[in-house]
Every structure is written in structure tokens, then in C-alpha cells.
Amino acid sequence: MGQERIVGKPALRKEGMAKVCGRAQYIDDLTMPGMLHGATVRSSIARGRILGIEFGEGIPWDEFVIVTATDIRGENEIALINHDWPCLAAQVVNHPEEPIVLLAHADRHLLPKAVAAVRVSYEEWPAVFSMEESERRDPVIWGEDNVFKTFLMEKGNMDLAWAGADLIVEGEYTTGAQEHLYIENNGAIAAYSAEEGLTVWGSLQCPFYVHKSLVKMTGLPEQKVRIVQVETGGAFGGKEDYPSMIGAHAALLAMKSGKPVKIVYDRAEDMAATTKRHPSRVRHRTAVTREGKLLGAEIEIALDGGAYSTLSPTVLSRATIHAGGAYYWPNIRVRSKTLATNCPPHGAFRGFGAPQTLFAMERHMDHVAEALGMAPDELRRRNFLRPGQTTTTGQVIGEDIDLQHLMERALAESRYNEKRERFARENAGAGLKKKGIGLAAFLHGSGFTGSGERYLNSLAAMDMTGEGKARVLVSSTEFGQGTNTILCQIAAETLGIEYDAVEMGPPDTSVVPNTGPTVASRTSMVVGKLVHSAAVGLKKTLLASGLLREGYSTEEFVAAARTYVARYGQLRAEARYEAPPGVHWDDQQYRGEAYAAYAWAVYVAEVTVDLTTCGVTVDDFVAVQEVGRVLNPVLATGQIEGGVAQGIGWALYEKVVWGRGRMQNNQMTNYIIPTSQDIPPIRIFFEERPFGHGAYGAKGIGELPMDGPAPAILNAIAHAMGRQFDSVPLLPEDIFREMTVREPEREVVAL
Amino acid sequence: MSPEHYALRVNGKLRKVDAHPMARLLDVLRFDLQLTGTKEGCGEGECGACSVLMNGELVNSCLIPVAQADGAVIETVEGLGEDERLHAVQRAFLECGGAQCGMCTPGMLVAAAYLLRKNPHPDVAAIREGLNGNLCRCTGYMRIFEAVERAVSG
Ligand code: FES
Ligand code: FES
């Protein structure tokens, strides 16, 4: 570490100049000759049978392209894990805003009126709108029991834990849906001709997911479907699954009309119709000794998956594995399930299930500490995972981690102990502003779970362009996190040339190999490693050709590469994923190496609660993390800060209001995200411990910061108020309601 | 209503358009004048992605009917600067990581430039207040504050 020229330095964002000049082209900035605009007619009810579709008066319908499910030539399905998510509802609808009819016209101003003029009549069926109703199977709306997926994960013997416990502490924790609120809404353009096949340009994370889905939906051969990602204005998981839907819709209209078709949602449609973070309910029952040794945990997880299973099984998997947090549990049993309800499907959102279960774990730790009369930091200190111990899946911690040190640093930077004591003293006074400080310690697994990376079998490549630039060829996409920059840094470092001599290939499925999806904090660690290997290959080829000698300059490298290309046609190297040694995973028992590496963190939040307004402000936020090697300090800091801000939003501001399965507040006016005046100073600290199997020691970073803020903030509020809140979002009205009732007794069983 | 003729001075150039009087200035800029740097995030005056200067004042162009902008002087991100001639805030955003996905960036840059025009030496509180009409979902704002501070100190 420290020898590198480019890695670890604040290289400027590759596409940064285009972005600050307003030149970057997002989907709605593009038009094509003869292009039509598309719009979607959606279900107005939660569940029922479609009886008929009428096209009302006053609209020149013969000018419109009209598509229904009967126009689909392949499978009427968005391909993810199961086969239940239709591209267009055919006979039945299962949630409000489910797409039924597609319309296209050259004049986009005519579309809203036309959409309103399509009348769908239904036979309405009973529906379920909460996990509790879903559990009661009243009625059954999916499969045999409304359950998309369950897991049971066990380690040790819980009977021993109960038998040895001095105390048993119980708690229930819930979290709400969260809207991604990327500033750019979902959008896609499709064009089709019999010779060229289908091309879809879109705002998206995973070109090959869309590719797979559209091949299936259109029935076209693979090479006749091409997906191109254009500049993408934020995603956060929200453009992992849904682009397959909007891309399919644009494709259907383009194939029927023979003209390019653009569909770009407005904010209201995007918020009402697309996926959100899964609401959750987590129950904990913990066996602990008087000395604060955790003996065992029984954890029950339920996630609301919405009307179709989409990505819910994998979200549940990550939720399950992260449920025990950053602690050593000699015995643990985690049961989890994801349930169907009649609202739009919930999907991927930064953290992917882990924020929900870590919120529960970290609130619960404070409850256990309180039951023991022990300081929250002390209980954590006594139970942190240490090298050589095993996680809940039985994975031996092989990395040289030191969570206690991370926590001590976070406590020192936030002056936690001093403030904890001072605030408690001052809060006892009559003042109406109460202050609190709280912490959360947690982990986040990098990359796909278990055997996921092995199944993906990702391929990356590098080549040289005609202009003499080294080019990174991957399907990993940029949507703000810094993929372009990080991968070019790795490539430039490895090739031994300047950062400016490297560029990204186009994120186009007809050009780049399948490096897997851009999700799961896998890009720096997994894809970065592949780019590193491809760069090594490229350099070796060039050196072996005799055109280049060690000790070369960038200019010499470029000259040699150009000669090579002129002589042999192309210079290209590929690298395929290889699992780090010792990674074994049992998908049935949920045992083994769940992730090749984990990122670790301790966050501290300081808050003020105003008892007059019931408003909470976060005054200070300290985020200490160990993410392996930091490849680019400016980008990494920005990732953490952005994630913390989203976490603050999830904790204190962002409430999705549901009415019969439909989001009622689908406007930025009514769904509040933090502004520049709501965010405290966020102070970021990295402990750098390079990970042996990532590119230059990197681990995942993007999702980690979503996990900590909510529990740290609610722990701080509990400290400030002496009252316990176990649900997010926590809005002033929730605090007000709680202040008008007496604090209920918490379940603590002394044995 | 049928289209009317309008004339606007956009980034120093006189531009004529035929548009419906109620057409949004945002759409006129983006679709009639092909100045797609200005973005739409919400269309309801909440996010500031569509921020431009109209006669020297910061406005949400999604809320301005073009009839109201007739004869006005409009400045957009494209007029701030480019490549070798970047505005100080553009350079600072690039260096400090003020742009991630870049979708809020044009509006944020225009708002930041406006802030510095009104108040050449804002403190952090003034920066936070000056940018509170521009939402960013990616950065958590810290890099943006730092960028504006750097633009101030040169
Ligand atoms: S698009 Fe104008 S304020 Fe959001
Ligand atoms: S950089 Fe993405 S919204 Fe601000």
C-alpha cells in the first residue's frame, strides 16, 4: 500500500467534465428521427379481473399505436428469479398501477388525455394490504400461502442459550417503504427493424438483466437484442429491476409501430408505479448473561414483497445473513419470510435487506444494554466478532478485523462518552430541547451472496482503441457511484500508464462482455479485480511481443500498442472470475462463506429533540469504516456521505403513505427527502486494511452507509428522551403520539 | 391556443421560438432550443434540477410559462463555462466530487453561481440556505458545500 501512482488518489471523475458542463446526455436528452412518445395505462384497483378495455370518445385513436398483452410474442414476463411478474397485465391485476395498455403518439402532449380516456372495467377481488393480512391468508393472493420465500438459518443450540441465560430480552422493530428518489426518473428508448433487431437505450444499472428479460419477452434471438446504458441520473438499486419493465414497454411499442419510441416517466408515475425498499418487521429474543455475554438469539424476519416476487428472495437472503449484526453468537436461529401484498412489488434498494435487519439488531442491542444496566458501547465491546470466530453462517473471520478499535475511534471522534454523560445531566432539567447521542456498529457483505459470484461467472476485458487509448470493457455501469473512475484508475495503475490514457468502453451489450450486474457493492472488489487481471494480460501480451520494454512511458506504451494493433488486428485481454480460495457455500443449510469479504463500520449520531415541535435534528454524524483499501478518497467519501444522507432520510423524513396498496404521496412536495439544511456535518473516517483478494485491497463500499444511520439516530433519540422508538421513519407526529401515552413495559424476563 | 412568437436572450444569444404560451420554459430550453443541460426532476418546483437564471434571478424553469419569459435574459448551465473556461463553481464541483450522478448538477451549479453573485463570501450557513431549493439524492451535500467553499477561496 502507498506505492501506487493512481490508485488511492483523488483522480477526477471520468465523466465529470461532461456533467459539470451540462453536456452529459441522459435518456430524456436524446431524440431520434421519427420518434414517438409512449405512455402507460395502469390499473386503478389493487386486485381483480379485467373485464374489458374501452377507448373513450374524443381521441383520434387511429393515430395512436396501442399495445396490450396480446401483442407480446414471447413470454409475458419480466425475467428475474421466479416467473410471476407480467410485462403487461392480461386477465388479472394484482396491484394498483399495474401496466395494462401502452400507447404511443408523436405528440407527447396528447398522451395524458389519451391515457385518461382508456377505461378498464374490472371485477374487483378482495386484496391484502399488510403483512399481517397476508400472514392470515385472508385471502391467498400468491401461490398457496402468500409466501414468496423462507429461510431458516441455525447455528449452535438455542436450548443451551435459553438454559444459560440470566436475562431474556425481547423486542419488535419495523421499518417502512422507502422511495429511491433518484433525481432522474426511469426512462427508455427502443428502436426496432427486422434487419437490425431491437435496441433499447435506457437509464439503468444492469444491461444484461434487461437483455435477458427482453430476449424472453420478444422471442428474438440473443444477438438481435442490444441494450445500451446511457448516462444514468441516480439509481440506488431502483434501476436494477424496473428498467426491464419500462424497456420492454418501449420495445413493444417500437416493434408494433416500426418507429423509435421513448417512454420517460414523470415524477408522480415513477413514485407510484416503480419499486421501493421492502417494509420489514423483525422480532428479537435474546439470551444474555448478567455480565453482558450474548448467549443466543432467536430472530424472526418478515419482509413485505408486494404483489410479485421480483428480487424479494435475494433481498430476504441478505436480510437473513446480516440479521445477527457484527457480533459473535454461539447460538442463533433466524427464521425469515417474504410475503405477498397487493401493492407494487418492492425491489432492490441500497443495502438490499440488510438495513432493515441491522436496524433491528442495533436498536435491540441498546435495549439489551438497558436491561442489563450496561452502557451500549460496553455491551457491544464484549460481543464484537473477532478474527477466528464464526459468523451466524459459520464463516470463520479470516480477515484481520478490529471492531473494538473502530468503535473506540468513533467514540473519540464524536466525544461520545463525555456527551453521553453531559446530555443525560442536562436533559434532567426543565429545558424543552433534549439532546442525545447514539451509536450503531454493523457489517456489510461485499459482492453476491454465497455461490452467487460463481454462478455469475463474470467476464471483463481490456483492449486498445484505434486512437491509442486503453479501454475497459465491462457491463458495470456508472450512475454516480464512480464506476468509470475507479475502474480506469485500476487499469491505469496496472498498465503503468497515465489515468488519462485509459477510457471506458460503451456500456452496450453488443460491445462489452457480461461482467454481471452493477449491484451488491461488487464493482470495486469483484469487477475491479477482473479489470486488474485483464490489464495484467494486456501488458504481458505487449511486453511479450517485443514492442515494449519494461520502464516504458505512457507514450511508449501507446505507440507500442498502436503498432501491435496495426500488425495483428487487435490487442485484447480477458479475465474471468475465480473464487478466492476457501469460499464454500451451502445453499440448503445456509452455511459457509456468505461473502468473500465484509466492510465494517461504527457510526455515531448526535441529535436534538424539540419537545415543543417534536422535531428531531441531527447535529453531528461520525462515520468510521473499514472498507479495505480506499481506491479514490473523494469518491469514497462522497459514497459514504450520500448513503448516510439517505439513511437519515429513511430514519426521520421519508414516509410512504399507503392507501389500498397505492402510494398516496407520490410527489416531491409530500414525500420529503433531506435538503441541504437538514443534513448535519457528516464526518468520515476510513481505517484502511487492504483485502487480499480485491483489486489493490478494495472491498465493497456503496451500500454499507445505508445500514447505520437509522439505528444510531433512534438510539440517540432514546438517549435524549428516555423513551424508546422502534420504528422508522420516525416523524414528529409519531413522537407526539408517543408522548401522549404512557411508556409500555418492555419484555424483560429475569431468570 | 395556437403557438406564438417569443424571443429570449439565452446565454448571450438571441433565440426565437414559436411555442404555446403556456409551454414551460424548461421544455422550450430543452426541446425547442436543444439546451438539454437543464434537467427535469419533478416538474412541480420542488427539486431545483431545472434551475436557471431569468433576468438575473434564480427560478425553477418548470414553473415558468414561456409567455412570462418573453424578452427575458436567460442563463443556463451551458452558459456558465466550458472545458478550458470553466466557471469557478464548475471547476470546484469537478475537483471536490460535487457531481455524482450529475442530474442535480446543472441546477445546483446555477444556484451556486447565483449565490456567489449575491454573496461573494458566504459562510456554511449561507451556502446551506442558498442551495436549499436544490435537492441532491447522491452526495449528501457535503462535497457540494466543500466545492462552493473552494470556489469562494479560488
Ligand atoms: S423540475 Fe423544476 S423544480 Fe423540479
Ligand atoms: S449528484 Fe445525483 S442527484 Fe446530485
- Distance between termini of chain B? 50 Å
Q: Could you estimate the helical fraction of the residues of chain A in percent? A: 25-40%
The helix tally of chain A amounts to 20
Question: Which chain pair has the greatest contact?
Answer: A-B, 55 and 56 residues
How many strands appear in the DSSP assignment of chain B? 5
| Overall pLDDT of chain A | 96
**How many strand units of chain A?**
29
Cα shape of chain B: elongated
Instruction: Name the CATH superfamily classification of the largest domain in chain A.
Output: Aldehyde oxidase/xanthine dehydrogenase, molybdopterin binding domain
- Rounded Rg of chain A: 26 Å
In helices, the fraction of residues of chain B equals 25-40%
Quickly count the domains of chain B: 2
Oligomer: heterodimer
Structure description:
The complex is a heterodimer of chains A (751) and B (154). Chain A has 751 residues and is α+β, with helices and mostly antiparallel strands. Chain A has 3 domains: 16-24 and 458-576, 2-Layer Sandwich (Aldehyde Oxidoreductase, domain 4); 31-125 and 186-264, Aldehyde oxidase/xanthine dehydrogenase, a/b hammerhead (Aldehyde Oxidoreductase, domain 3, Alpha-Beta Complex), CATH 3.90.1170.50; 280-449 and 589-750, Aldehyde Oxidoreductase, domain 4 (2-Layer Sandwich), CATH 3.30.365.10. Chain A contains 20 helices and 29 strands. In chain A, the strands form 7 sheets. A 7-stranded mixed β-sheet of chain A has the order 3-5-1-12-9-10-11, sandwiched between helices. In chain A, strands 7, 8, 13, 14, 15, 28 and 29 form a 7-stranded mixed β-sheet that branches. The two termini of chain A are 52 Å apart. The model of chain A has no long low-confidence stretch (mean pLDDT 96). Chain B has helices at residues 25-32, 66-69, 77-80, 88-96, 105-118, 124-130, 142-153; strands at residues 4-10, 13-19, 51-54, 57-60, 73-75. Chain B starts with a strand and ends with a helix. By secondary structure, chain B is an alpha+beta fold. A 5-stranded mixed β-sheet of chain B has the order 2-1-5-3-4, sandwiched between helices. The structure holds FE2/S2 (inorganic) cluster (2 copies). One FE2/S2 (inorganic) cluster is lined by residues 40-43, 45-50, 60, 62 of chain B. One FE2/S2 (inorganic) cluster (FES) binds next to loops of chain B.
